Amino acid sequence: MFDRFARVVVWARAPLVAGWVGVAVAMTMALPTLEEAQTGALGQLVPAGSQALEAELMSAELFAFPLASRTVVVERDRDGLEPERLALTARRIEQANVGRLPIPRQPAGAYGITNAIPGLAFAREFRTTAVTSLLFGGEFNQVERVDVATEYASALQAPPETSVGVTGTIPARAAQADIISDRLPLIELVTVVLVSLTVAIYLRSAVAPLVTLLTIAVAYVVSVRVIAVGGESIGVSVPPEVEPIVVALLFGVVTDYGLFYMSRFRRRLSEGDHPKDAARRTAAELTPIILACGIAVAAGSAALVVADLGFLRAFGPGMAVAVLIGLVVTMTLLPAALALAGRWLFWPTSPWSRSREPSNPGPAERLIARVVRAPKRTIATCLALLAIPTAGLAWIEVGNPVVRELPQDSEPRQAYAELAQGFAPGVSAPSTLIVAAPGISSRRRNLADLQAVLTNQPGIAGVIGPASSPAQDAFGVVLSRTGDAARFILISQTDPLGADAVRLQANLRARTGDLLEAVGLNQAQAAYAGDTAILGEIIQTANDDLLRVAPIVLLTVALVIAVFLRALVAPLYLVLLAALSPLAAVGLAVAFFQGVLGQPELTYFVPLAASVLLISLGSDYNIFLVGRIWNEARRRPLKEAIVTAGSGASHAISAAGLVLSGSFAALALVPIRTFQQLAFVLAAGLLIDAFLVRSVLAPAVIALVGQRSAWPSRQLTGTPPAE
After folding, report:
1. Is residue 460 helix, strand or coil?
2. 433 pairs with which residues across the strands?
3. Residue pLDDT, tens place only, 325-352
4. Above 60 in pLDDT, residue 590?
5. In this structure, what is the dihedral angle of CA atoms 378, 384, 387, 391, given to the nearest 10 degrees?
6. Considering only CA atoms, which of 604, 608, 418 is closest in space to residue 502?
7. Are 288 and 2 in contact (CB under 8 A)?
8. Which residues are 490's β-sheet partners?
9. Distance CA 424, CA 701 (A)
10. Cα angle: 501, vertex 507, 513; to 5 degrees
11. pLDDT tens readout for residues 465-492
12. Is the Cβ–Cβ distance between 625 and 653 less than 8 Å?
């Protein structure tokens, strides 16, 4: 079947190349890009059935106004805000609540607070800072909210000595999208240079990089358009974080497959084949291996579709679509280009003058020979080496510091820093505790006792509640007008989206029932709302997704390898080996970012997304290496086949590992902490996989298991003795 496929590709080489280029040009002209399909919706981040979101809606219904703003305007003057300034701020808040602001579009409302109030527990300075939280209806998207907030900040008419800025979750996400869009061309340029240099050096050619880049360009253009159109057609917002990862993934994967094809094509030419015959034989021999590699990567990425978080459900299939399109383009366009270019592909060198796979024993062959002679000692040494970075997982902390991870010069980060000077950082996104029971608003003494207890809880800088209101009437701020609910506004001492705040609130939530009973409110029902509560649910859902998705990814990859090898034993230990690199890479990231750099946490989705990608991408090397060993084992004893095929494949695996890790390392050019962490984990994991797990540990395990690897088939038995 693959021989017929190769004949068709070589026969139609010119129409195939021209056709793919035409498709890419047509899609560029007619279809939207990923950036145009991004809406920035926050709903994808909230797990289905979120109790915190339900509490947020309940708070909006029971009380006079909601607290969830996520768009905050900060005014600060280190020398002190004059009374006239504070009066103007109060007047603007009043105008916002009646729809009479002197700006084109009106928010739904606003509320504010200033540290000019004497004795405010969560104030760090006096009369230096005022914070206005703007409220919006559902008709405003992310960009429109930021625009209105910016116009509101201008309407405050602040003098030059007063700093005015916009911060919050929504402005931070909008700033992230802008930064990603601005840095994407640089990522593409750096990755192009990396791919070009690697291919040029590995193949000693000036033409091969151009063919590789043509294949990547077609795959990238088609992929991003298909993902954008697919997301729009099913109503799924494409996360801004997807496009840089698509770029890195496609550049790395297509280059890997291209290196496999071109390396074997050169070998055929060096053996004297005509270019057309060499292209046909290369395509027929490697296409099943490349197909299995691509399907394994795509299937592993697509397993994220079972995640509960909408962000991950969009992330996984997007990666799978990109890989499948890159696979189809590579399997058709690249062999056709090989047949068209012929020997000119390796200009200025002569492909028939030397082979990159040495016939004499080299360092790789000597290393694998030692591995095969002592597999148990090799396995023990490798596992010990991998255990060292993996130990870092014991100290992992996760959060989503969407504001703090921005560059220092971004407006949301600067405004947050100004806010944190005048107040405890929790003012940027206060949490809400709703306590509900019939007639509870009349039990002011019990509610005051609860407020005092909450104020003394770890991590709480201050609480606004019924005890903060001297009036006996229920105005709908902290006491519902129905008299059946009370609202406590909790201000955290640290970033409300950081790991510390999430952990402390989880502990508080677990003890809330006991606290209510201690103050005589044991019949009341409690619910938490706010960004900290939502993030806690997101992190818990992500942890549950990891336990759910990881086995599915491993099983999916194992099934692909089992079908490819027609064996059941080898896939089992190969997927177990695939899990070692992600564990070591994430543990190493914990040690580097939390230990060396002193960052409080990793972004919550980095360990899960990176692990899925590493397991999936590691299957490339699995299939390529084991496929070569299986082929060699048909002609020689298994241990000799491991040495011969392992050393022969080591050059391609090393080059592919460097390209793929370099492509993902380029993500660190985005000056956002999440991308830097993701780049580190993926690059480190791929290097560990390529140079330790696949090149040393996997051959040792295959040698130790021996012919049983092929069970229930007998592919590795009855081989002829070595000549």
Report:
1. strand
2. 488, 528
3. 999 999 999 999 999 988 899 988 876 5
4. yes
5. -170
6. 604
7. yes
8. 431, 463
9. 55
10. 130
11. 998 876 555 567 899 988 899 999 999 9
12. yes
Distance CA 636, CA 209 (A): 35
Encoded tokens for 671? 């000056």
Least confident of 250-259, 448-457, 618-627: 618-627
Q: Are residues 554 and 690 in the same domain?
A: yes
pLDDT of residue 67: 86
User: How many domains are there within the chain?
Assistant: 3
Angstrom distance (rounded) from CA 427 to CA 416: 10
Same structural domain, 682 and 546 = yes
Structure tokens that stand for 578 in this block: 């695939």
- What is the amino acid identity at position 484? D
Same domain, 235 and 328: yes
Distance CA 634, CA 548 (A): 39
Do 160 and 305 fall into the same domain? no
Lowest mean pLDDT among 28-37, 179-188, 210-219, 401-410: 28-37
Q: What are the start-end ranges of the H helices in 472-605?
A: 499-518, 531-565, 569-578, 580-589
Q: Are residues 201 and 340 in the same domain?
A: yes
- The owner of tokens 């296409």 is 287
* Residue 108 domain boundaries: 71-167
Helix, strand, coil shares of the chain as percentages rounded to 5? 65, 10, 25
Q: In what order do the strands lie in the sheet with 109-114?
A: 109-114, 129-135, 72-76, 163-167
Taken in order 253, 258, 263, 264, is the CA torsion positive or negative? positive
Question: Under a CB-based contact definition with an 8 Å cutoff, are residues 122 and 462 in contact?
Answer: yes
Q: Which amino acid is at 141?
A: N
Q: What is the pLDDT of residue 684?
A: 95
Q: Are residues 504 and 372 in the same domain?
A: no
Range 554-564 average pLDDT: 88
For the record, the structure tokens of 376 come out as: 């148990």
- Tell me the per-residue pLDDT of 686-720, one tens digit each, with 9 for 90 and over: 999 888 988 889 899 999 998 888 888 877 764 44
The burial of 579, by beta-carbon neighbours within 10 Å (0-12 exposed, 13-18 middle, 19 or more buried), is given as middle
**Shortest CA distance to 511 belongs to which of 497, 501, 526?**
526
Please say which residue of 529, 558, 579 terminates a domain. 529
Distances (CA, A) of 507 to 426, 491, 500: 17, 15, 11
Q: Which helix (H) or strand (E) holds 398?
A: strand 398-399
From 119, 136, 167, the end of a domain falls on 167
Residue 307 pLDDT: 82
Contacts of 60 (CB under 8 A, 6+ apart): 66, 68
**pTM, to two decimals:** 0.89
Cα separation, 179 vs 413, in Å, equals: 13
CB 703 within 8 A of CB 641: no
Burial class for 95, CB neighbours closer than 10 Å (0-12, 13-18, 19+) = middle
What element of type H or E holds 603? strand 602-603
Give the Cα separation of 28 and 213 in Å (integer). 17
Rounded Cα distance, 292 and 299, in Å: 10
